[in-house]
Every structure is written in C-alpha cells, then in structure tokens.
Amino acid sequence: MLHAAIVTTDDELLQIHLLNKANHKPNISAQERDTEGFVSWNYPLELLRQTQQLAPHVIVKEDDKVVAYALTLLPEAAAFHTDLKAMFDNLAPVIYNGKPLAEYKTYCMGQICIDKPWRGKGVFNMLYQHHKLLFAHEFDMVITEISVSNPRSQKAHEKVGFKTIYSYSDASDDWNVVAWDWGM
C-alpha cells in the first residue's frame, strides 16, 4: 500500500538518488522525455544529505521501496547547491501580487519524480498534499521551475494548483517558474 512520509534513512536517500539518475534528462531517450517527462537536476547522494539536513524531503513508499520523491529545498541550500542559487538569482527581480517574491516566505520544490509503474495513480498529488500538510504553516507558498520542454510536468503542477508567475531562459533551458500560493 502506498503511503507518503518524510525521509528518515540514508537508504531512502540512496533510493531517491537512483530514481533521480534513472530519470535524469541526459540518461533517457528523446522519445521518453517527450512522453514521460524528465528531471533536470542531478542529485548526488551527498547533496541529498545536505539538503535533507535543512528540511525533510517527502517520499511515497510501497513497503520499503521509494516509488516517488519531492525534494524540499530551503533558500539556505543555495549556499551549497549551485543550480538552486542560479534559480534564486533569476527570481530576484520577480514581482508577485505587487511585491517582490523575496518578501514572501517561500521554499523550492527541488524536484519531483515518480517511478514509471506508479505514474498516473495519484502519487504526484499525494506528494504535494504531504508537502502542504508539513509546510503550509511555515511558508506562504512553494515555488519551482519547469523546463518548457516538459509539458507533462507543467500540466501536473497546474492540476495541483500551481500558477506560472515568471518565465526566463538561461544557458541550459527555457523555464516557467510556478508557485502554489497557500494563502489564496
């Protein structure tokens, strides 16, 4: 039976790392990227450990197997997570509902990934609902960026309640920044 939880063991972090590696954009075919989506950022085990020390990552498990994850990245992680720092640097000029995004209490969904056999079974929503349960009392919203070449992810985020608040391009891709505003 599937259940959402927070990461509590190094073995769970290792399973996240392996799921990340299996679904990382450079490691899958163009056809699979188009039909199944992909993850953009590589997460070595040590980076997962560092970010987990700041805030717990959310997982969905079946028995002892991690079948999905949603990484919690606090702004403080930008000190050692170069991709996250670049994202926050790109968000610096963003105005949301009339004030700078930086004035809101936010964190970043560092990545969300579901193993193929469990896709289309409500796991995506389960991950985000667990995030909301854990973090809505501390934060105004969760933000993330989605590659414009990953429409499956964009659609899934919109279904949960995310709205695109900003778009930009960098050397690696074109991005939509989306937010799930818990105050709305």
General description of the model:
By secondary structure, this protein is an alpha+beta fold. It has one domain: 3-Layer(aba) Sandwich (Aminopeptidase), CATH 3.40.630.30. The protein is 35% helix and 29% strand. The strands form two sheets. It has a seven-stranded mixed β-sheet, with helices on both faces. A two-stranded antiparallel ribbon has the order 4-5. Helix 5 links the parallel strand 6 (106-114) and strand 7. The mean pLDDT is 92.
Describe the structure concisely.
This protein has 184 residues and is of the alpha+beta class. The chain is built from six helices and nine strands; from the N terminus they run βαααββαβββαβαββ. It has one domain (2-181): Aminopeptidase.
Class from helix and strand fractions = alpha+beta
Any idea what the radius of gyration is? Answer: 15 Å
Say how many strands there are.
Answer: 9
The number of distinct helices, counting runs of at least 4 residues, comes to 6
Helicity, in percent? 25-40%
CATH class: Alpha Beta
Low-confidence stretches: none
- CATH topology category name: Aminopeptidase
Strand content: 25-35%
Largest sheet: 7 strands, mixed
What CATH architecture label applies? 3-Layer(aba) Sandwich
* String of helices and strands: EHHHEEHEEEHEHEE
Global outline: globular
- Our measurement of the CA-to-CA distance between the termini, rounded to an integer number of angstroms, reads 33 Å
CATH homology group:
Gcn5-related N-acetyltransferase (GNAT)
Strand order of the largest sheet: 1-2-3-6-7-9-8
Arithmetic mean of pLDDT: 92
Number of domains: 1
